[in-house]
Amino acid sequence: MNTSTxxxxxxxxxxxxxxxxxxxxVGLRLFGAKFKGKMGELKVDGLLVKLPSTTYHTLDxxxxxxxxxxxxxxxxxxxxxxxxxxxxxxxxxxQIVGTEHQNQWTxxxxxxxxxxxxxxxxxxxxxxxxxxxLPELPETAFVPIVVFPNHTSLRVHxxxxxxxxxxxxxxxxxxxxxxxxxxxxGQAYAKLKEMRVVDKTAYKEHVRRIQKNTxxxxxxxxxxxxxxxxxxxxxxxxxxxxxxxxxxxPHCRFRASIR
Length: 259
Prior knowledge:
By secondary structure, the protein is α/β, with parallel strands linked by helices. The chain is built from six helices and twelve strands. It is globular and about 50 Å long.
């Protein structure tokens, strides 16, 4: 192989590499959180395949329709005799601060602070959807889990597990309480596969509804109105600094971070 041929191949490889970098850059710029979220879900997909397939049955990116016609998208579901593990993935870095009762958590990256919806609340909604779809299973069968990237600093106080990705598989394998029979496992897994929505239009409508609800909540907070009960938001002081709290406390426990 002469020098010109080698140089030609090297330039070709370099061109492919630059194209991949360009696609990743454009994806991050155009789609932002959606692109990062999908990358996080793919990482967890790769981790869950390490679970023994004879005992643990995994479904990823599951869209289910509820009785009221609305949809619920669940990142990952693992069905086993040790429970139905309901996994919400958050591909967020920096430091995450929050409690299970707060409506919003805070993400700090250097001098920048952002808010995110409490993923525990989000995942509890997913559990309720599964309880509606699988009413034959006991409530104790459902185990909600939230996972973050390994490099994220977690200052979270919650009774449900909030884990780093590296700890997910080990944590699931450590659960040894038998919650379901083999028959229940097989029926639940088959039913979820049958009931999952695969229509792309339904996915787009689901995303539009979530975005609409998020904008409405942010607008309410911006105008000083509690999006949960319609009460007035007032500034309060908590363990991790100031936050917006509902004047209807303790009847309404809505809280939001101050940006």
